[in-house]
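Re: the request from the purification team.
They wanted to know what the chain is likely to look like in 3D before they choose a buffer screen. I agreed to run a prediction and write the result into the notebook, where they can find it.
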Amino acid sequence: MSALTLLANTAVTTEAEHPLALPAIVWAIIFAGGFVALGLITYSFKDVAARHRDKWGKDGGSAHH
């Protein structure tokens, strides 16, 4: 038996012995949903600085009142 045949047989049996816990499309949906959720969280903070602009004043945020 040649080394190439042995390597090919090992690759085929290794893949069959370790199947995914869920089908690949389910993993894709889970990660896409997580990506969208993180994007929505990031988007929710897009205007925080503008909402609190009056707290800092026009002097650049110094502590002098």
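For the purification team: Helices lie at 3-17, 24-44, 48-51, 53-56.
Please add any questions underneath this entry.
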